[in-house]
Amino acid sequence: VDTSVFRCLERTLGETAPVVPAFIAAVTDARFLRQRGIPVYGFLPFELNSKALRGIHSKDEHIPLDAFAKGVETMWSVVRECAGS
User: Fold this and answer.
1) Degrees, nearest 5: CA angle 71-73-3
2) Could you count the other beta carbons within 10 Å of the beta carbon of residue 6?
3) Residue 85 and residue 78: Cα distance in Å, rounded?
């Protein structure tokens, strides 16, 4: 948590969402980067209701269009903030 990226996430998202270390029971390729000393952050910019969350990785996985649009806006905010810092 003591990195410029983590602080950027706190600045950008901290007022609307918690920015905390968390363990998520899922498999990603992040372990290969971490093995090389590269910090990796999981970030889901979409606000999903419980129905959408239950559908993750199912055969009909999808998110509502308004949640997607808001998520893209959120992601751009993070990119702009972090690229400028």
Assistant:
1) 85
2) 15
3) 11
